[in-house]
C-alpha cells in the first residue's frame, strides 16, 4: 500500500490585485496563492485549513493540499492499493489545480528546484511554524534556506532514485552545474537533521528514537505555535521547556517534532522516501512503479 506525495512549484503568477490591496502592502504572489486555494475549495468541495485569518491548505477525506514555505503546492495523497489508483489521483489533482489556475493566469512547472527566481523573490507563506523553521535554519546559511523555499520533491517508497529522477538543473535562469541541485541543497542543512541515518539497518528503532529525542525542538503547538529553539525534545519530556514549564509532550507533539527532521528515509505512520525531484506527470506515476519493481525484486532475491 502506498501513500504517494506529489509536489509542484508555482512558477508563473499573473493574478490581478486591486489597488486597495496593493496599498496595504500585500504581496501579489501571496494573494494569488490564497485565491487559488479558495477557488479550488469552492469548485471541487475541499474543506479549508485555516491558521487565524489565513487559508494555508485544503483537505478532503484522507487527501490534503498544503502550501509549503516558498509557495510550493503539495498534494498529500491517501493510501491506495494499486498504482493505477495512485495515477488516477494525481491526474485528478492536476486537473483541479490547472482548471482553476488557468483562469487566474497561473502556471505550474514540475521541477525539483526553482529555476528562475532569486531567494529574495520567493513569496512567503503565512504559517507561524515556517517562520520558526526559517529562523532556525538561517544559522546554517543560504543553502539551508534555499532547501526550504526553493525545492520540490516527490516523496515515496533513494540515492538511486535521486539520480534517475534528477530534474533541477537550473537556478536563477542559468544552469547550476548539478543535475539535481535540490538534493545537493537539502544535504547542506544541519547534518544531524538530514541525510542517510547510519543505523538504518538496525533491528530496532531505539537509535532513531534517541536521535530524535536529542534534536532541537523547534516548536510546539498549544492552540498556537510556540518557539522552543535551544531545547531538545528530551528536555520537553523532562518538563524543562521555559515556554511551558511543567508540561510534558503528547503523542501529537512527538509527531510534530518528527516532521522537523529530514533524513532520506523518514518513518511516520508510513515509510517516506524523500530523494526524487519533482517532475512531469509521467515521472510522477513512474516513481512508485519503480519502487514496486525494486522492492519486489529484492523479495524475490531473498527467497
How would you characterize the overall build of this protein?
With 303 residues, the chain is of the alpha+beta class. It has two domains: 236 residues, Creatine Kinase, Chain A, domain 2 (2-Layer Sandwich), CATH 3.30.590.20; 43 residues, no CATH class. The chain has eleven helices and 15 strands. The strands form five sheets. Strands 2-3-4-5-1-6 form a six-stranded antiparallel β-sheet, with helices on one face. Strand 14 and strand 15 form a beta hairpin. The longest helix has 22 residues. It is globular and about 50 Å long. It starts with a strand and ends with a helix.
What CATH architecture label of the largest domain applies?
Answer: 2-Layer Sandwich
How far the N terminus sits from the C terminus, by CA atoms, comes to 21 Å
CATH class of the largest domain: Alpha Beta
Proportion in β-strands: 15-25%
By helix and strand content, what is the structural category? alpha+beta
- Which H/E pattern describes the elements? EHHEEEEHEHHEHEEHEHEEHHEEEH
Order of strands, main sheet, comes to 2-3-4-5-1-6
As a whole number of angstroms, the C-alpha radius of gyration is 20 Å
Low-confidence stretches: 1-26
Number of strands: 15
Mean of residue pLDDT values: 80
**For the report, how would you describe the main beta sheet?**
6 strands, antiparallel
Instruction: Supply the number of structural domains.
Output: 2
Overall spatial form: globular
CATH topology of the largest domain: Creatine Kinase, Chain A, domain 2
Q: Please report the number of helical segments.
A: 11
Helix content class: 25-40%
EC number: 6.3.2.2
GO molecular function: glutamate-cysteine ligase activity
Organism: Glycine soja (Wild soybean)
Keywords: Ligase
Amino acid at each position: 500500500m502506498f501513500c504517494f506525495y506529489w509536489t509542484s512549484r508555482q512558477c508563473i503568477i499573473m493574478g490581478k490585485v486591486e489597488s486597495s490591496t496593493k496599498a496595504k502592502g500585500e504581496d501579489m504572489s501571496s494573494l494569488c496563492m490564497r485565491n487559488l486555494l479558495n477557488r479550488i475549495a469552492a469548485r471541487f468541495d475541499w474543506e479549508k485549513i485555516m491558521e487565524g485569518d489565513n487559508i494555508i491548505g485544503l483537505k478532503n477525506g484522507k487527501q490534503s493540499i498544503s502550501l509549503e514555505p516558498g509557495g510550493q503546492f503539495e498534494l498529500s495523497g491517501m493510501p491506495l492499493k494499486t498504482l493505477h489508483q495512485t495515477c488516477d489521483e494525481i491526474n485528478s489533482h492536476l486537473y483541479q489545480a490547472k482548471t482553476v489556475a488557468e483562469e487566474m493566469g497561473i502556471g505550474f512547472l514540475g521541477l525539483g528546484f526553482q529555476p528562475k527566481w532569486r531567494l529574495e523573490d520567493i513569496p512567503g507563506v503565512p504559517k507561524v511554524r515556517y517562520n520558526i523553521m526559517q529562523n532556525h535554519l538561517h544559522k546554517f546559511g543560504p543553502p539551508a534556506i534555499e532547501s526550504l523555499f526553493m525545492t520540490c520533491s516527490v516523496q515515496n517508497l533513494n540515492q538511486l532514485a535521486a539520480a534517475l529522477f534528477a530534474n533541477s538543473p537550473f537556478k536563477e535562469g542559468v544552469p547550476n552545474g548539478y543535475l539535481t541541485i535540490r538534493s545537493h541543497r537539502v544535504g547542506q542543512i544541519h547534518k544531524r537533521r538530514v541525510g542517510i541515518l547510519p543505523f538504518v539497518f538496525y533491528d530496532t528503532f531505539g537509535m532513531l528514537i534517541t536521535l530524535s529525542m536529542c534534536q532541537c525542538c523547534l516548536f510546539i503547538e498549544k492552540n498556537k505555535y510556540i518557539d522552543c529553539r535551544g531545547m531538545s525534545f528530551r528536555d520537553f519530556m523532562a518538563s524543562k521547556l521555559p515556554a511551558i514549564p511543567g508540561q510534558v509532550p503528547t503523542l501529537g507533539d512527538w509527531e510534530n517534532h518528527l516532521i522537523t527532521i529530514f533524513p532520506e528515509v523518514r518513518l511516520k505512520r508510513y515509510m517516506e522516501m524523500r530523494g526524487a525531484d519533482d517532475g512531469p506527470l509521467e515521472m510522477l506515476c513512474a516513481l512508485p512503479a519503480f519502487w514496486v519493481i525494486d522492492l519486489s525484486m529484492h523479495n524475490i532475491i531473498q527467497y
